Amino acid sequence: MSTTLIEVRPAKAADAAAVASTHDEAWRAAYQGLIPGPELEKLINRRGPGWWDSAIRKGSRVSVLCFGDKVAGYANYGRNRARSLQFEGEIYELYLRPEFQGLGFGRRLFASAKRDLVQSGLKSMVIWALSDNEGATEFYRALGGRMVARSSERFGAKSLDKVAFAWTN
Hints:
The protein is built from five helices and seven strands. The chain is an alpha+beta fold. Helix 1 (about 15-30) crosses helix 3 (about 50-55).
């Protein structure tokens, strides 16, 4: 019998390539068919290993969920960027590689990011998701998020609706 360690920990610069690969796989799975192809490719290509290395080295809050020695998912988070919303923290991104979805790992990553925000004094938080990304919207609802705002974002010629889910402690 073997045991595989599952851990959530702060990302290290050495994780940059694995986070970039996770970003690539997760975004293709989540957004193919929603975000126009050329726009999706631009968004993915902007976030290569160099981008993640720089973000991690500059102190951005990036956590990784590791399954054994493989990065299975990541979250990055910090202060809320939307001044119009009265929430202190924000999870900017939370993604898992497709083969690790539906196993409870997203809940673990979410709980870890939320705990880190609360421990740093950010007692409420928000997450944005595209309205048409049913996997994400259902996930955030199941975690107790309440919808607090709507907006839209342009991807080339296409405008997509997005919703904000919030939690307060």
